[in-house]
Design brief:
heterodimer, A: alpha+beta, 31 strands, 30% helix, elongated, B: alpha+beta, four-stranded antiparallel β-sheet, 3 helices, 22% helix
Chain lengths: 764, 139
């Protein structure tokens, strides 16, 4: 309803609620800056990190699916502290029969509905590390103690600051059947050709991180919170059946010994090619599958400044590679896959690796390693430095669905992307899953969108997180929750942080400021161990945008965004010109709804008394309310003489005033993005910064002034803010169709294959 | 889920992850199936529909309501959406939803039901250990 006002008075009402929680600065939540990590979010002047270098000899027993290793670890203490003991992590011990991982699984009788479920419960395999010895360089046994997934070595004398210690660990373990036991690594057995494909990681006792943040990060591995590791250099010898092809973290050192002449020639060709070159063809891999050699070969790999080492080995591997250049440096992108992965893998995998390396380098840091590898590994996606294991398997006839294709593309981009988070920007996954998964999922989204326009990314765009955030608050964890305790892992640690960064980039900071700040964080913390505070502080420090409200609401809180347009009041200035104002009043009167009785009486009552008797109508009956008389004119002329030309122009401009009242129903504050659609169908966008909520956190109003009449106001028209209820975002109100309604509106009558049959019938 | 007075029925859309369905179907049968194979093969699709219906049961005044699967939609991002509708019934009592779908396979997951009435959302979260709840919406 349009209203008119004579004058505009603005009355300042001093009724500011004093306790503004949503915009309170993060204070107690963040650790006090110190010499190791400064208040700007950068490494401090006394920042340190430890180093762990490994020399390993590994033997893969393909007959018994067993891995044996001897590793010499050289650990350098760069901290200011003397260390009386060292902690190593034994991730394989989650497969130990008495592992906590199994004991803490919540179970109900409904979980045992079938014999298969019961068999699964009784399934046993002799997993876990068998540590045979730990000895000093002089061969003396060192005292150690195993606490589930952690191993402590007690040093005879504390390891002093700026000193190193070397020791040897001898171990072996039975490799898990990944298809039966699950896991991030293990083997897959191919019944048809009776061959194994090994993807092996977390396979050796690895040094824990000792840092200024956690001391020793020796929180037990329960299966979910992945790991954190110090950087170091690796020199690894891997003995495998001689017909196996091995992919590993690092660069192959002895190609002349393990590759054939033709393979070496193709390898060299691939290094110069910007499209994939086959080094081992499918025909060659299929021949190896049948032959099954019993002799062995030893492959040697070296990797510098990495936080871990993983490898894959199989005679089933097809192998292709291509070069990509980043910052003037050549990087060899490679894929290893069995024939079961084709045709998807030979067509897409290596190109995806190259695209990911290039795109992530643009948004984060230049990829520093010489190789980047994608290995086909059914069902899973898992990342290690320079190498990752990815699913995406077509049907046996070589066909695949669109979702399978996008699933494979997405997992390869995501896992290759993990090279940056956390392999290079080395956050603590055991503590904070979001620091690698969330940041990585965000850049994954950017990378997917650069791979294909309109790529159907699962996570990233704000509106895709709305279903999750709309849920029962009791069962939603803040992002700032330890990895093991998170409800809804994927949405919490991947989806919500990625969405948050997208909102910062697209809506709150803008692309230029965000990209600069995000890259600054990556550059500051590459090859270091960042903590959440370092990220939060850097993003503000490099952008001059106070984001404390955002970190508080989005990362420390769980409230969703649900901002509603509660009321719209429409005003116009009274021009004081009687010709204009009376015409307006007349128009309004004409537009009023008329009672049905009046309409019907027009016809049913032939003539009223006053229509018959002209003496009935007096002054009031005859007067024209909308007639501009001489007095009206005179008063207007007087008004004009007292009013400045500027004010008169404003009064006659025909401005429309809209007071829009907003309510913050969800709790999380957001900028107000408004699209006004005018009577002539033109539109205008207005963006109100989030600080409009800084004093009134629940309700705010804002007056918008236009030359034209507004017919619709839409809040968040570009789905930028993850608003969980779009039904209250429009004036006048429009109810969004539910998904079922959409289904009924778009119900397909046939599947794509049925349609194709009809197309074929026309052709024939 | 929403009650449609003109049709006198509840209608619901259930979103699952195609990858999860392919995984558990393959595990159950000891043979690899892609989601496309499952949806194309009558016996597997019916088995899947049965799994969906048994994991999503609604009672009104303690009386179970029969649901049927009206269709499905496999989206390119890997979401698999099932569309369900109930038998015709007046809306006249307390609704209790049991929603343990797939929780025996993925005990850490949460199922979420979003009951719509006049465009307003009423969201309930179901855990493996807490899989049945009253929908706090009056007829």
């Amino acid at each position: 309803m349009k209203k008119t006002i004579l004058f505009l008075f603005f009355l300042a009402v001093c009724a500011v609620p004093w306790a503004q929680k949503k915009f309170a600065q993060l204070d107690v939540e963040l650790p006090t800056p110190n010499e190791y990590r400064n208040a700007a979010g950068a490494p401090g002047h006394a920042y340190y990190q430890q180093q762990a270098d490994y020399k390993m000899n590994l033997v893969l027993d393909d007959a018994k699916q067993k891995l044996m290793g001897t590793e010499v670890i050289t650990y350098t203490n760069n901290s200011p502290d003397a260390l009386p003991y060292l902690w190593l992590q034994l991730d394989q011990n989650i497969y130990d029969a008495h592992s906590d991982t199994k004991l803490i699984e919540v179970e109900k009788m409904e979980d045992f509905k079938s014999l298969g479920d019961i068999q699964k419960r009784f399934f046993y395999y002799d997993g876990g590390f068998k540590v045979e010895s730990i000895t000093s360089t002089s061969g003396q046994a060192m005292r150690y103690y195993i606490n589930k997934t952690m191993l402590r070595i007690d040093l005879s004398t504390p390891l002093a600051p700026k000193s190193s210690i070397s020791f040897t660990v001898k171990w072996w373990y039975n490799i898990n059947d990944r298809m039966a036991v699950g896991g991030r690594s293990g083997y897959e057995y191919f019944e048809k050709d009776k061959n194994y494909l090994y993807t092996l990681a977390q396979f050796f006792p690895r040094m824990c991180v000792y840092s200024d943040v956690t001391g020793w990060q020796n929180k037990q591995f329960l299966g979910r919170g992945e790991f954190t590791l110090p950087f170091g250099n690796y020199d690894v010898m891997i003995q495998v059946p001689s017909d196996h092809i091995v992919a590993a973290t690092g660069e192959l050192q002895n190609g002349a010994e393990v590759l054939t002449a033709i393979q070496r020639q193709r390898f060299d060709q691939a290094k110069k090619s910007n499209s994939p070159i086959l080094i081992v063809t499918q025909a060659e891999a299929e021949a190896a599958e049948k032959e099954k050699k019993s002799s062995t070969k030893t492959w040697r790999f070296k990797a510098t400044n990495v936080r871990d080492f993983a490898f894959a080995s199989s005679r089933k591997f097809i192998w292709d590679a291509q070069n990509v250049t980043v910052g003037g440096k050549n990087i060899l992108c490679m894929s290893y896959y069995p024939k079961e992965g084709n045709p998807l893998w030979e067509r897409f995998s290596t190109k995806l690796v190259a695209h990911t390396i290039k795109t992530y380098s643009k948004y984060t840091v230049d990829y520093p390693y010489p190789v980047a590898i994608s290995v086909h590994s059914k069902w899973i996606g898992m990342e290690y430095p320079m190498i990752c294991f990815n699913g995406g398997r077509p049907e046996e006839d070589g066909t695949y669905t669109e979702s399978e294709k996008y699933g494979m593309w997405g997992v390869i981009i995501h896992e290759v992307g993990h090279n940056f988070f956390p392999m290079i920007i080395n956050s603590d996954e055991r503590q904070w899953t979001w620091m690698d998964e969330g940041l990585n999922t965000f850049v994954q989204y950017l990378t997917e969108q650069e791979w294909e326009r309109g790529y159907p990314s699962r996570r990233g765009p704000a509106h895709l997180i709305a279903d999750y955030m709309r849920g029962d608050q009791k069962f939603i964890s803040p992002i700032m929750t330890n990895s093991e305790s998170i409800f809804q892992f994927g949405n919490n640690a991947y989806g919500k942080p990625a969405t948050g960064l997208n909102i910062l980039r697209e809506t709150i900071m803008g692309r230029e400021l965000f990209d600069y700040a995000f890259k600054t964080y990556c550059e500051r913390w590459k090859f270091k161990h960042p903590s959440p505070a370092d990220f939060f502080r850097t993003m503000e420090d490099a952008s001059a945008v106070d984001l404390d409200w955002f970190w508080r609401g989005w990362f420390y809180g769980t409230q969703p965004v649900d901002i509603a347009i509660k009321e719209v009041k429409w005003f116009q200035l009274n021009s004081q010109n009687p010709a204009v104002e009376k015409a307006f009043l007349k128009e309004q009167a004409n537009e009023k709804d008329v009672h049905i009785g009046v309409t019907r009486n027009e016809h049913s009552i032939k003539q009223t008394v006053n229509e018959r008797d002209t003496l009935i109508d007096d002054y009031y009956a005859k007067r024209n309310l909308y007639f501009v008389d001489a007095l009206d004119q005179q008063e207007y002329e007087e008004f004009k003489t007292k009013t400045s030309d500027k004010d008169l122009a404003l009064l006659n401009a025909g401005k429309h005033f809209y007071e829009v009242n907003f309510e913050n129903i969800g709790g999380m504050v957001m900028p107000l993005i408004l699209r006004f659609t005018f009577a002539d169908d033109s539109t205008e966008i207005q963006r109100i910064p989030v600080e409009i909520w800084r004093q009134y956190e629940d309700k705010v109003s804002k007056v918008f002034i236009f030359d034209k009449e507004v017919k619709e106001i839409r809040l968040d028209p570009f789905l930028e803010t993850a608003d969980v209820d779009l039904n209250n975002n429009t004036w006048p109100e429009i109810i969004q169709p539910s998904r079922y309604q959409l289904f009924k509106q778009n119900q397909p009558k046939e599947n794509p294959m049925q349609r194709q049959k009809r197309v074929d019938a026309i052709k024939n | 889920m929403e009650y449609y007075p003109t049709e006198q029925q509840f209608q619901a859309s259930l979103t699952l992850t195609a990858h999860d369905i392919a995984f558990i179907t393959s595990k159950k049968h000891g043979h690899d199936f892609t989601i496309d194979q499952i949806l194309r093969t009558d016996s597997l699709r019916l088995e899947l529909e049965q799994l969906v219906l048994s994991g999503f049961t609604l009672t009104q005044n303690m009386q179970p309501l029969f649901f049927k699967v009206d269709g499905h939609d496999l989206q390119e991002n890997g979401d698999l959406i099932f569309y369900l509708s109930s038998e015709e019934t007046p809306r006249n009592g307390i609704l209790q939803l049991s929603f343990p779908l797939l929780s025996n396979y993925f005990p850490d997951q949460q199922n979420k039901a979003d009951f719509l009435k006049h465009g307003k959302h009423h969201v309930l979260t179901f855990l493996a250990t807490d899989s049945s709840k009253e929908i706090p919406v009056t007829p």
